[in-house]
Fold this protein.
Amino acid sequence: MDPPPPLAPQAVGERTHQNLPLWWTLADGVAPSRVPPLPSRRRMLVQLSLAALAVFALVVVGTSFAASRLAERQVLNDVAHRTNLLALAVIQPALDDRLLEGDSAAFRAFDNVVRVRVVPNGIKRVKLWTIDGTIVYSDEASLVGKHYVLDKEQLNTLAHPRTQAEATDLNRSENEFERNDGKLLEVYQPVWTPNGTELLFEVYGDYEPVQERAFDLWRGLAGVLATSLMLLLVLMIPVMWRLLDRLDAAQHQREALLLRAIEASARERRRIAADLHDGPVQDLVASSLAVSGAAEVERAAGRTGLAATITEAAATVRASVASLRSLLVDIYPERLADAGLSTTLADLARPLSGRGIEVDVDVDEAVAARLSEVAQQLAHRVARECLRNVVRHADACHVTIRLGPNDDDPAHPVLLSVEDDGIGFDPDILPRLEGHFGIRVLADLATEVGAVLRVSSFRGRGTTWQLALPVEEAR
């Protein structure tokens, strides 16, 4: 069979052996995605509630993070301000130049000031550094006299006098006695001895005030935000309910309009089918009988040439009747369900006999019964289009139509094949040709149903069409 140029392929098979056919796939069996139905009212409300909970969780996490950062900044500012006051009002007036020389009396006097007036203000550790990194005083006596390298921030504070405060993770070597206290607040600023020697005054404070401040801020912010979100959710519920009512009404209206349109189309198709069946089809049947009778009369009178011409005309009329009946199946598909695929496929094949083409029809009725109504209509249309191509192009003597199980593809368990012994065609030319309208329609219909439509042909070796159909058990 040599069909008109088909639709450009979606996929091409490969021959694993030179004697195996090369299949040209026109529909790959992947049905197009459907527009999902509107969710139910209950589902919409559940989704809204889950979304509100998700937003609330995000707000809680975000608020906690923001409160922690804000609280740390506020507490650092407070600690820096308090340390600045201690440095100016307590530490600097108590400094003695003899402290730098290691004088024990000066050390005891300064230590007494620190323990009485500084440490009680929530201070964990006090250090006094020289600019070369030597600790000249600490309330931890083991640190006094030790030398460490000052970091960049400490040197910048000495070079540009200011109060610097930060949360520290105590990872420097000079923090060996503070690590057991966990995270601390570190504040340092420069101070000067009476003779003008610059020192670095450093204190460590507890981090607990940051956590307390963060909790207070979070409680206030989270309370306001949670109340606002809950109020918004409560206000949205009636709005969503109203919107769902409108969506339901619009959906029902669309469904009603679609149903009326389908019913009107079905009524019109039934009317046209009835008019064709009761009018032109019956007239052509009667004409066929009359012409056949006239042929017999002429044959009895010995005018065999005229009788043969009239007989050929009668065959043409009968072929037209068969074509009209096939057309009635497309116009009014319920006739297909009533008659069955076996009968309708045989009706399609009958006109070819008058043209000298032998057609074998083999339909497994049990397999055909598993097909949905839409799939049966598609099988009928594919078979009809293939037989039309046989008549027009194939120059075939024999055609086989089979419908049975498809063991090679569980997703498409029903297989329709139409095979002829005609002249065939070269499949390599298919991509360069424009799509034939009839085959394009078949490919689109097969895609819509989720069926696989493919063709195999070679010059002088005939053509085979295959339609692999899915089964909808729920139907």
The longest strand covers residues 184-192. The two ends are 35 Å apart (CA to CA).
